[in-house]
Amino acid sequence: MNQFELNTTNSEETSQFAAKLAHFLQPGDVIALEGDLGAGKTTFTKGLAKGLEIKRNVNSPTFTIIKEYKGKLPLYHMDVYRVADTFEDLGFDEYFEGDGVTVVEWAHLIEEQLPAERLTIYLYHEGQEQRKIALVPKGNRYEQLCKEIFR
Question: Which residues contact 45 (CB under 8 A, 6 or more apart)?
């Protein structure tokens, strides 16, 4: 399995990369976001929303679990950090198989419910503002998507 990496020097570059990625996304795509607190998961999602032409302010759905935004494609933004029981049926599969793009922060907490094919993005602190972004595609669709982005 390939891993694709890049480094950003500030939150604006992280956001710009996410906006670029958005142009390659299709209905039903699932992005699993991983990273420590403050690593930039929500910043990344805001950039993705910008690339999907979403006008509303995007913020973390920490207490609501799922927020939906309308744009070029719908964006389903999930923060599953507070989901206590990973086997609880919260209808995630309806979003994963829906007509939009699903972004799941802290995705490892619902690993059993995630689709086998997805794009996992890890955000690592490399300094105060610097981030290392590692994309790990699972499945041919996401492998091709990463190759396109890193051309």
Answer: 18, 33, 58, 60, 75, 77, 103, 105
